């Protein structure tokens, strides 16, 4: 043993990081026999690289370092791991021997296709708490440290693409969208888009603030309910930044990206939370894909009119409850008489709550983009509306999904939401009427399976 063994009892003032003998030492020699379970402030050699969230620029703020490799274990200034939920696949690749544990990426030519202008919010620790505002510009901002071998990774990337959506092709054919040659590039409905991918980087005091809890409660809850996976949430109160193992978001920008932050032109925005079954596979039990397609069409139209169109896609599958819970709820709905008056109760019975998306962190990306007002908000959700307005961005007009885009079987979902206070310019149903809004049963399916 190289390091002195120390008990994990918190009394670590002058000890080395908490280490135990590995119960199942890897057959390869890529790790030492000591496993460092956690660290403590004031321990020998613990010296986090300064990280001052909300500082005036990237240099003053400092790089986010989560790596535990070699000397960085004592110098890391953030908890968790890069890649969000994909951090586990990274570990698998190392376990399988496909990837060296100390691999350092070669970032040549990976820089953004568009340089987003610095915004005052990037230096405001209350406006951005759930992403690293310099996460796209690591190579540029921390070149010296990267050259010195520090493991610093981008948590954002900016690229461009052509996209093709069936509904956009139809809109072009039906004369509802023009071919302008730069945004909609041809009669097939090919669309040029700038994309920004963002992985979550949480500044814990700011996240706690948004949820109205104290930081200690947030840390303890995150620790307990990730199976104790991140002990430094408890032992390192000096570390304020956490990269959680969850999905991030993607921004789709139609038209010139510099227009997004231009107050003098109109902005159309859709905030869309993932629904794989509808978004990709077009299951008709909800309005997700139709609303997404409508949002994209309106965003393109705004850009064609000289404004800007933005669609932001959050990886929050099934109201952030996940697909397993979503399908359990579908079954409970279909077997229990699928009526709109019972829509939310069915979810609460199984998940305990009706929604875990918590829009409180969502507006961060809007502030990062420099959005100052939203002319057309392509959403009926009050949670999204209120979170954006409370964060200081006014919404001028709210645009519900057109009636003719709502699939028959999804009336249960949309009417229940409208009754619960979702914004609509159309009719709001009473509770009695909701009991009459009924989804399709499984009768035909039973015929097939019997
Ligand atoms: Zn859906």
TrEMBL record:
<keyword id="KW-0378">Hydrolase</keyword>
<feature type="domain" description="GTP cyclohydrolase II">
    <location>
        <begin position="266"/>
        <end position="400"/>
    </location>
</feature>
<dbReference type="InterPro" id="IPR032677">
    <property type="entry name" value="GTP_cyclohydro_II"/>
</dbReference>
<comment type="similarity">
    <text>Belongs to the GTP cyclohydrolase II family.</text>
</comment>
<feature type="region of interest" description="Disordered">
    <location>
        <begin position="1"/>
        <end position="27"/>
    </location>
</feature>
<dbReference type="GO" id="GO:0005525">
    <property type="term" value="F:GTP binding"/>
</dbReference>
<protein>
    <submittedName>
        <fullName>GTP cyclohydrolase N terminal-domain-containing protein</fullName>
    </submittedName>
</protein>
<feature type="domain" description="GTP cyclohydrolase N-terminal">
    <location>
        <begin position="33"/>
        <end position="225"/>
    </location>
</feature>
<dbReference type="InterPro" id="IPR000926">
    <property type="entry name" value="RibA"/>
</dbReference>
<keyword id="KW-0342">GTP-binding</keyword>
<dbReference type="Pfam" id="PF00925">
    <property type="entry name" value="GTP_cyclohydro2"/>
</dbReference>
<dbReference type="GO" id="GO:0009231">
    <property type="term" value="P:riboflavin biosynthetic process"/>
</dbReference>
<dbReference type="InterPro" id="IPR022163">
    <property type="entry name" value="GTP_CH_N"/>
</dbReference>
<feature type="compositionally biased region" description="Low complexity">
    <location>
        <begin position="15"/>
        <end position="27"/>
    </location>
</feature>
<dbReference type="InterPro" id="IPR036144">
    <property type="entry name" value="RibA-like_sf"/>
</dbReference>
<dbReference type="Pfam" id="PF12471">
    <property type="entry name" value="GTP_CH_N"/>
</dbReference>
<keyword id="KW-0547">Nucleotide-binding</keyword>
<dbReference type="GO" id="GO:0003935">
    <property type="term" value="F:GTP cyclohydrolase II activity"/>
</dbReference>
């Amino acid at each position: 043993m190289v390091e002195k063994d120390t008990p994990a009892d918190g009394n670590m003032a002058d000890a080395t990081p908490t280490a135990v003998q590995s119960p199942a030492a890897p057959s390869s020699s890529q790790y030492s026999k000591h496993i460092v379970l956690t660290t403590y402030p004031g321990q020998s050699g613990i010296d986090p690289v300064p990280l001052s969230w909300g500082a005036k620029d990237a240099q003053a703020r400092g790089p986010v370092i989560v790596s535990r490799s070699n000397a960085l274990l004592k110098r890391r200034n953030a908890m968790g791991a890069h890649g969000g939920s994909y951090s586990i696949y990274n570990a698998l690749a190392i376990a399988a021997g496909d990837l060296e544990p100390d691999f350092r990426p070669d970032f040549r030519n990976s820089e953004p296709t568009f340089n987003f202008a610095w915004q005052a919010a990037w230096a405001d620790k209350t406006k951005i708490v759930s992403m690293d505002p310099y996460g796209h510009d690591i190579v540029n901002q921390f070149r010296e440290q990267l050259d010195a071998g520090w493991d610093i990774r981008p948590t954002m990337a900016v690229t461009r693409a052509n996209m093709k959506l069936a509904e956009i092709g139809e809109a072009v054919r039906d004369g509802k969208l023009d071919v302008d040659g730069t945004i909609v590039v041809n009669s097939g409905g090919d669309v040029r888009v700038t994309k920004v991918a963002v992985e979550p980087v949480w500044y814990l005091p700011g996240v706690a603030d948004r949820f109205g809890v104290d930081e200690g409660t947030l840390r303890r809850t995150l620790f307990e309910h990730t199976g104790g996976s991140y002990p430094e949430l408890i032992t390192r109160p000096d570390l304020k930044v956490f990269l959680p193992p969850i999905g991030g978001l993607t921004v789709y920008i139609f038209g010139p990206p510099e227009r997004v932050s231009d107050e003098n032109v109109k902005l159309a925005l859709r905030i869309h939370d993932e629904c794989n079954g509808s978004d990709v596979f077009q299951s008709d039990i909800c309005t997700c894909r139709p609303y997404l397609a409508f949002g994209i069409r309106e965003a393109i139209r705004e850009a064609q009119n000289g404004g800007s169109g933005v669609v932001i896609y959050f990886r929050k599958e099934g109201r952030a409850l996940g697909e397993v819970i979503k399908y359990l709820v579908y079954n409970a709905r279909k077997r229990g008489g699928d009526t709109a008056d019972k829509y939310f109760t069915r979810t609460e019975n199984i998940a305990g709550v009706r929604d875990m998306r918590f829009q409180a962190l969502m507006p961060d990306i809007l502030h990062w983009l420099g959005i100052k007002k939203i002319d057309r908000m392509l959403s009926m959700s009050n949670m999204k509306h209120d979170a954006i307005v409370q964060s200081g961005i006014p919404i001028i007009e709210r645009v519900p999904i057109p009636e003719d885009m709502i699939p028959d079987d999804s009336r249960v979902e949309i009417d229940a939401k409208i009754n619960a206070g979702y914004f609509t310019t159309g009719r709001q149903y009473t509770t009695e009427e909701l009991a009459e809004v009924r989804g399709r049963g499984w009768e035909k399916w039973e015929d097939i399976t019997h």
